[in-house]
Amino acid sequence: VMDKKELAISYHDQKYNCCQAVVCSFADETGIDKETLFKAGEAFGLGMGGMEGTCGALSAGVMLAGFKNSDGNLSDPATKAATYKLSREMVKRFQEKTGSTVCKELKGIETGKVLCPCPDCIKYGVEVVEEVLGL
Predict the structure, then answer these.
(1) What is the pLDDT of residues 30-81, one digit of tens each?
(2) Can you give the chain as a three-state secondary structure string?
(3) How far apart are CA 111 and CA 77, in angstroms?
(4) Is the whole model's pTM more than 0.85, yes or no?
(5) CA 77 to CA 46: how far, in whole Å?
(6) Residue 46's CB: how many other CB atoms inside 10 A?
(7) What values do phi and psi take at 54, rounded to 5?
(8) pLDDT class of 85 with cuts at 50, 70, 90
(9) Per-residue pLDDT tens over the stretch 96-112
(10) 54 vs 7, 43, 73, 103, CA distance in Å?
(11) Residue 129 and which of 28, 60, 88, 113 are 20 to 30 A apart at CA?
(12) What pLDDT does 13 receive?
């Protein structure tokens, strides 16, 4: 049986972007079907729309924080602050593990110095989800 990190890497090997690879690994835990998670994560690839911004593997974790923690109360949401806190903790831990949260910095696009290649970012994305969200 594959662990979540191996599952996420296998998805990435099947041409899922970094966000899709991480978020789809938690389909069972969220109760959301893989196709919906795949669609939700598609635009977050290559640092959001190919703009080399926030790492997709980290974006996946932030998305999962909402799925895990939001009360889904459309008329009177009460969970935003707590969800933001979870997200901040994931961002902090991801940055500590990788050296950045920005795709182009992680990949060394401008500097030539790779801080963390995509497969490792995916593993760390899964790790922070497991550590912070307990998924």
Answers:
(1) 999 999 999 999 999 999 988 999 999 999 999 999 999 999 999 999 999 9
(2) CCCHHHHHHHHHHCCCCHHHHHHHCCHHHHCCCHHHHHHHHHHHCCCCCCCCCECHHHHHHHHHHHHHHCCCCCCCCCCHHHHHHHHHHHHHHHHHHHCCCEHHHHCCCCCCCCCCCHHHHHHHHHHHHHHHHCC
(3) 43
(4) yes
(5) 31
(6) 19
(7) -60, 130
(8) very high
(9) 999 999 999 999 999 99
(10) 22, 12, 28, 6
(11) 113
(12) 98
**pLDDT tens digits for range 2-14:** 899 999 999 999 9
Distance CA 101, CA 53 (A): 8
Of 83, 93, 30, 50, residue with least CA distance to 22: 30
Contact assessment for residue 19 and residue 13, using Cβ atoms and an 8 Å cutoff:
no
- Supply the angle between the helices 4-13 and 118-128 in degrees, to the nearest 10: 140
What's at 128, amino acid-wise? V
Go through 100-130 and write b for each residue having 16 or more CB atoms within 10 A of its CB, e for each that does not: bbbbbbbbeeeeeeeebebbbbbbbbbbbbb
Helix crossing, 34-41 with 56-69: angle to 10°?
130
